[in-house]
Amino acid sequence: MAETLGMLCDKLTIVKLKQYHSEGNLKRLTSLNKQATQLQEEIDDYVKDALNGLIPLDKITFESNKVFKKEGNEVADIVGGIGEIFYQLAEVNCKLWHEVEKGYNIENVPIQEKDDLVKMLATLNLERNKCIDEINNNFRVILDNR
User: Fold this and answer.
1) In total, how many domains does the chain have?
2) Neighbouring C-beta atoms of residue 18, cutoff 10 Å
3) Residue span of the structural domain in which 40 resides
4) Does the pTM of the predicted model rise above 0.70?
5) pLDDT tens, residue order, the chain (146 aa)
């Protein structure tokens, strides 16, 4: 299994964003509702399998291993329980979605704001990956302590 709990949570938040932004498109919403249900079931199965020892502990975490210049690209530490971090992940993905939307019309972004947009996209993506990693780390601790 190549997915982790954090990765599945990330996918679910993105599906929810797509649902929100697909208002009125019944065909797309039907497909997204099916995908959301499948992801929820996959999360439930993943947690159940991990708790039952069917997923080796060394496969619970899968660090993002981002390679980037750390100086000037600091991202706050992500803290809290899985639910709180899942909430932070959803919030980061909302912000990321709206910044990416600006990039789709990059020619309309004033020159002086383009650098800020690229920096924001990079920083939000780093924060997103930290959330995913921290969900995985928290879940690993839960499994280690049972």
Assistant:
1) 1
2) 16
3) 5-144
4) yes
5) 469 999 999 999 999 999 999 989 999 999 999 999 999 999 999 999 999 999 999 999 987 666 666 677 788 899 999 999 999 999 999 999 999 999 899 999 998 899 999 999 999 999 999 999 999 999 999 999 98
